Amino acid sequence: MSLIEQAAQRLEQLRQAGVDIPPQPVKESVPETKLEQAMPLDKTPQALPPQVEPDQPVVIQSPEMAMSRRVELDMEALSAAGIIRPDSPRSQLADEYRVIKRPLIDNAMGKGPARIKDGNLIMVTSALPGEGKTFTAANLAMSIAMELDNTVMLVDADVARPTLLSRLGLAPARGLLDVLVDDSIDLPQVLLRTNVEKLTILPSGTQHPRATELLASDAMVRLLEEMASRYSDRIIIFDSPPLLVTTEARTLASHMGQVVVVVKAESTAHANVKHALAAIEACPVKLMILNQAKSSAQDGYGYGYGYGYGYGNKNAS
Questions:
Q1: With a threshold of 0.85, does the pTM exceed it?
Q2: Are 100 and 304 in contact (CB under 8 A)?
Q3: pLDDT by residue (tens digit) across 175-185?
Q4: Domains of the chain with bracketed CATH
């Protein structure tokens, strides 16, 4: 006899003996399998997935964005320094750079008269210091950043006398030289993302006693090859040393698809211009910009430019 049957028999005996037994509530038995289904053995609370608002944008960062650092360019200070602002109305300077940049962009994107190897690598230089190459490189980069279909990286490659960051109102930072001397530093780690959506800056980096020699090193050649292929959809502008001051600038030019030579009007000697052009003779595309050229149409200064394969033989203002 089971325990349940014995208990039922005992209760019946007590009732027959006159003992008042209150009725017992009946408990519905639940099969063990149902209990296991209702309450899993693992009672650890499960983390709920994060909730995303339906209209909340989800930003997916590229590896480059995740590693790079963001900086803010002061638009008012840029304007005061004569740098084109992407949010400014049309101006004579902005219109001039629209004309200057168009053949460069076409060559960079393979839309020019002939396909240019590494056409997206553009070097801005001059014969001697003080002719306006850094000013030109910054304005050219800013103008290209205003394009709908192009992004631009501005590189301070004048490693012996870097002035690009100060011209843009930025503090010194790691950059090109750090990548060249330290194999553990990857290029995206030293890039500066700016509040101009399509403009990224590569500083010259930590000063080095052999900075100019590093521009002619095998490490620099490998880096240029990486930049040309890794960023094939991006136009990369190098503010380089003057051509007649260091031989490293000529070596750098030999790896460029396009070279822009800035000449200061009524200042640079004709012989220096000829020597500078001879130094970059191997470059397939050369564009010349006459900086601070006095305009005949109005008082003030503007730009003249020449463009071609070889010596710039077409002039305009």
A1: no
A2: no
A3: 999 999 999 99
A4: 63-316 (3.40.50.300)
